[in-house]
Amino acid sequence: MKQIMKRFFLLLVLTALISNTFAQGINFEDLTVEQAVEQAKVEDKYVFIDVYTAWCSPCKMMDAQVFPTKEAGDYFNPRFVSLKLNAEAGTEGPKFANKYNVKVYPTYVVLDGNGDLVHMFSGGILDVPAFNDKVEEAFDENKAYGSLKKRYEAGDRESKLVASYLHASMNMRSDVTDLIDEFYKVSSDEDKITEECLFIFDKYAPIGSDREIFFRNNVAKFRKAVGDEKVEEIVKRKYEDYFGLIVKRISATATVEEIEKTANDLAEYGLSDLGKIPVFKDAAIYKLKQENKEAFLQKLKSDLSNMTEADKDLSLYIVIPGLKDLLTEMEKDDLLALVKSDKVKGYVIRAAYR
User: Which of these, 217, 248, 314, lies nearest to 275 by C-alpha position?
Assistant: First the structure.
């Protein structure tokens, strides 16, 4: 009898362990969209649909790193009936992708219990809390794509609504350049200096453009409207890209004079932390002038010593291959020794060594 009870107890424990294992992540059900909508209506939930393809690398990364996590399961399972649709296989997946004009994978679609579109966005987001937050926008009518689209198509042209709708459309990789140009022309300065319009100055305002100059001239107002952190994040990314692309030879027409003018423009923002910008700027100038190598390398190492390990690796990821023809093998080795990430080291060796 004791042996039977012991086996029974072990069976219960094993069952519990198996149940907990399978309950960790998002419960994707084997249902049609119609069945999922019906179930969601009965259970007072929404429908979450992951639209993927077999060849999509970000889709596979989401499957491996996000969907199976307990944090994702805890968020999704009480709120959604979830299913996956292959946009290029079977019948329902391709039809669904065509209906919602899905062009990028993965794309995520949220429907309500009536089958109406609530929210939609695209791209791999490997940070689980960030992904959950993005899905949570479905419950905010000022961020949910379906709600914004419905109001926009009904003729609502209130400035914040239009900006939010264009931003949501951009997040699905839609080409909204013409719509943004039109919107920007008719918007007042007051309307532009808002949280909703910030993405325009991030993604659609190259350095030296009228929009970037407006952003720079009104940076104090932007800081007050959206906060210092968001403003500085945009500026750092924009100027790191500008100088970094020169180092990588992608922007081959720049001159030293233009670089120095751009550096002066950057100073007007009054950033509290310049991040990787000084490293990229000095490397860009050295690349064009090819003078005072010893002084350049000394300053480079000094700047790198004040960085986090991640920023140091990212800087050298750009600088060593970008300057490979101007550095000796010994100088490359010296800089490579500062890299901590094996992946970055591997890339640099492949890209910078003959």
Answer: 314
